[in-house]
Each structure stands twice: as structure tokens, then as C-alpha cells.
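ok so for the tutorial part 2 we go from a plain amino acid sequence to predicted C-alpha cells. step 1 is just haveing the sequence, like this:
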Amino acid sequence: MERRRGYMDWLLHADIDWDTLTSKPKEYSPGIAGALFGAGWWCWVDAFVHSAAVDHKHIPITYHIPGWVATLALIVMNITSRQELAEPEEMYVDDNFASRAKVLLFISYLMAFGAVAGSVAVLITCVQHHVLVDIGVGALLQCGFVLLSGLLLWAFRSADSPEY
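step 2 — the prediction. this is what the C-alpha cells look like for a chain of 164 residues:
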């Protein structure tokens, strides 16, 4: 009779079946990513409606920018396919998909960093002036959830097929 191995034996002997371990996240990641994306935009819309309808305060257009940039970064990040990133790199060739894909992915990361920095700036500005603090918190939550959904979707996307 074979003894059932415990978690310590599993960790010590490192016989991890990574395909089985990552099959469920690949299956559920699009749904979780969509829920995170929806939660992010819900946080922003809730804060916006509360400030506009209940508090009757005008919200500057610049407070909208971090959320739109985060959403655009999510789109640009998920346009990039893993096949293009895995192609051998040959510099100075017209049809160099790998370099274009890497540049596109780098630009999406820069946009994501800019969105987070912008939402932190909105939150700091709102807290310092003691107005529209809910907008600042909503902007930060929106960027965090949207970018987390983009990373989750990109990380667990199947490498062998372009589908999700």
C-alpha cells in the first residue's frame, strides 16, 4: 500500500506538476479578470456619481485621465501575443515582430505606471484640499483593479492559442 504524501514531502521532493497546477487558473482567469475590470470601473463610477449627485461637486476632467490610461494600457498589453515575444530577435530587419512586440509591451507598462502615478497624484491632491477624497480613492482603486485584471489576463493566457 502506497503512503499518501503530505505537503512537506511534496515541497521537499519538488515533484510539482505545473501543467495541472496552472490548468485551473487558465480556465478561470478571463472571468476573474473581467470581474476585476468591472469592479475597478464600478469603484470609479460610484465615486463619480456620489460626488456629482450627492455632494453636488464639480469634478475636474483631469481626474478622469488615470482610469482611461489604465484601460488603454490593458488593451495595449493584451494586444501583444506571446508568439511574437518568443520569436528570435534579428535586429535591423523590417519584419521584426519580436522587437515590435517588446516595445509595445514596454509602452503598455509605461502607460500602466503612469496611470498608477496619476491616480496617486489625484488621491494626494484630493486629500490635501479635503475635497473629493472619494474620487481620489475611486481613481486609485480603479487603476489598481484594471491593471491587475490586465496582468492576470496576460499572465494566464494560453501560449499555444490566441484565444482566452
